Amino acid sequence: MTTQQTSPEVSRFFEKIMVAKDESELADYVRSLVIALGGESYVFVSLHPGVTTASRATHRFLIGCRPEWCQMYNANKWYMTDPFLEYARSNTAPITGSEVVVETQGQREMLAAASKNGFRSGIVVPVHASTTERMGVLYIGSDDSQAVGEKRLTAQRLYFRALAMELLDWSIRTAKHEVLEAHGITEMDLRVVGYLKSGFTAEDIARELDVSVQTVYGNYKKIKDKLGVSHISEAVKFAEVNDLLA
Q1: What is the pLDDT of residues 226-240, one digit of tens each?
Q2: 200: domain CATH number?
Q3: Can you give the pTM of this predicted structure?
């Protein structure tokens, strides 16, 4: 068990996380903070709660644990039945490993494997964004027994909730930037799609932008071409799924 840092030192780790230049640097800072708060391993995942398919198209991960655990988790498709993930879809309060409700043999196997790979004890922190549909789940683990580890980690739950929120903000910003870059989407494109989401007609948009209706329809075509969709309503759905309108 590592010695916990004082609050000023923990605050400095948060400051570094907020200005991390890339994912690798962010992962290192998060690991340092987790250790400072008494944990040893972590995984953060953000996703859309309604997406439960095996493709995990909307999932984004930040990993700070043994790679063997991630390999087992993926190989067994435990993300389809993860009891902590199911809990996080409709809850916001942190939950410890001993509190989770286990209903299937697969879930029991998952928790047994987690216990051998840095998550013998742990706490899971759900976080939900107010401006998008995306949610996040922060898993913090320790090799200590549940009696020891859970008590220590639970005492730091406010810090872990703050960390989860920062990581969800980072995930939303990063995902949005990558999608905009990949498809060449402009601010004007987003503005038009935002109006459509709000129920504006082409005539409404033309009036709002002080352009002709023909210009608006031209914008529709450019947006559809960039996204490879056949109807502008599909562009609105794409923007929603990828958190582009937040």
Answers
A1: 999 999 999 999 998
A2: 1.10.10.10
A3: 0.79
